[in-house]
Amino acid sequence: MEELISQVPQQIVNGITLGSIYALLALGYSMVYGVLRMLNFAHGDVFMVGAFTGWGVLMFFAEDGQVAAPILVLAAMVLAAVGATSILGAAIERFAYRPLRGGSRLVTLISALGVSIILQNAAMILTAGRAKAIPAELLIPQDLVVRAAGATISATRLAMVVVSAVTMVLLDVVVFKTKFGRAMRATSQDSEAAEYMGVNTAQVIALTFVLGSALAGLAGVMIGLYYTQVDYMIGFSAGMKAFTAAVLGGIGSFRGAAAGGLLLGLAESFGVLIAPPVYKDAIVFAVLILTLILRPAGLFGKPSVSRA
Amino acid sequence: MLRKLKSKVNAVLFVILVAAVVALAGTVELAAKELPPIKIGAAGPYTGDVSKIGLDGLNAIKMAVEEANAAGGINGRMIEIVEADDAADPAKAIIVAEMLAMDRNVIGVVGPMNSATVQAALPTYQRAGLPIISQSATYPPLTEMGYSVMFRICPRDDAQGPAAAKFIVEELKAQKIYIIDDKTTYGQGLADQVEPALKAAGVEVLRGQIDMADRDFSPILTRVKAANPDLVYLGLANPAQAASLIKQAAGLGLDVTFMGGDGLKEKDQLIDGSGGLAEGMYVTSIGKDIREVPEAQSFIEKFEGRYGAMSVFSGQSYEAANILIDAARRAASDPMAITRDKVREAISKTDGYRGILGFPISFDAKGDVVGASIFVYQVQNGEFVPVAEYSASVSGN
Is ipTM over 0.90? Predict the structure, then answer.
């Protein structure tokens, strides 16, 4: 029992770290669902591309097991990954979803699954299916830690949580305080009405994809540095978790996605206090099922109203 | 007039026919001089997480075949390799086993390399009567299930596990051990051998599991940290995953000695991949580092000149291929009379084959190798340094 309690502070830290990544990804899911009413199953794979881009940039600058300016390289990794995923997101929207708009939602869903499979397989072929080690220690010493209240917080985790929090605050400002944010919320509420009011919904949708994909790129770089390796399948499991987080928070809701991500991360970490770690995914989905039984629209979701 | 023409045409046709028959006979005669090739299968993970050991093994097999062909092949028949990529996936291992079994020119197989893939594919190979020599499948039951086609040149985990336990208890004097395995046939199987041997010595053992697909190890490492063990034993099949786990342990402030099995003895993935944090870690090995074997020097030089640094099973793969080729040569004096069954028979009669592994190789009645040793290595200054050696004989073997 004492051993169990001693793990609590650490598991909180573990949960928040993981949860902040889930939250960033869930936001992308939720935003796209909001404006398009579709589940973008390729989102996890966009995240994977972000992680690989970060790895590529780091390997480009690493010479003889050293990096000249860690901070600059880190910035370059983030910029390259965010740039790559933004372009990828825009391209996916333009070529895989836009031509199908107006058709059945199921068609776009299948198209999303197709894009996901294409990205996964392309990455598998390019890497021969082998995990790539990310020498994160070149940027941040792996044993650089802060000890507080019985928990050990590595510099990497601290950076992840801070960056995620700042990003989410900025996003909140964009969504709730800017003109684009208002247009996006309007499109989410009723795209037809928004269009009558002069909102260029096609543009809003495209920009929403770019924004969501950029968040995935950022999350990809961070997860790469945290896991210290990247492989072509990371998008699949992360995508599933993020999707779960989005549903948990109430899909389509911003703050719900962020809360859902954090909750999921914490559930995963706390679950292993009582069950063997190998069941962590089972615990995550059990939380989802329970939540949906009690609140079918998710934590922050509004009960759906059928549209005419 | 017409009749005359007709007979002329007939005459021309007749000449053409004769010429064609002669030409055909000529090619038949030519082909008879050159014997058809004989094939050996090379089964292993050439894509996927553990593809590095697979591809390095395949390169070593290619070298063995190339050298054998330069020396006249198998009694005049050239050897061809049929590559069978199983991606370390048991389901794929069965499919590629079927493919090899259906090709009647395949007379033997080097591999598969993973315990799980051997276990899955063995019934198929047995049905086809196709002998296999695994270079690295260490799971003990593989040779206990009565499959006559199964041979391996690596010692078993019921030798490796107890040797690791002996080292932990006698040399490291550790009192509390946390064992983490990855649920694979190899990883969990090895952990299952280490645990009872440790318990028999009166040491406290805790266990936990991860999945081969896991990338976040903080949940289990937090548990490990709370338990505060003297040593963490890793029953993992993927050295890249082990390196990642060790790095995440440092991030949690977990300062503990790690130990693992033969599958982790991979310099660039474990030592370099961990960014120096694997320093001081121990691994057991199912064979001597062939750099210390004089007979292996020309192989190492040639291999590294061509493909770069060797993997843990490169030497084992080269040896397994050579034993198969040697057996095929002994199987029948008439190269066209070589059958799978004769090759299997010849492999079982391998008697003190001296290759590059540093000990003479023979097989017992089950297909297990006789006379091997288990070595313990420690990572010192970024290299694996041998620190102990144990006999690999298993009681009752």
Answer: no
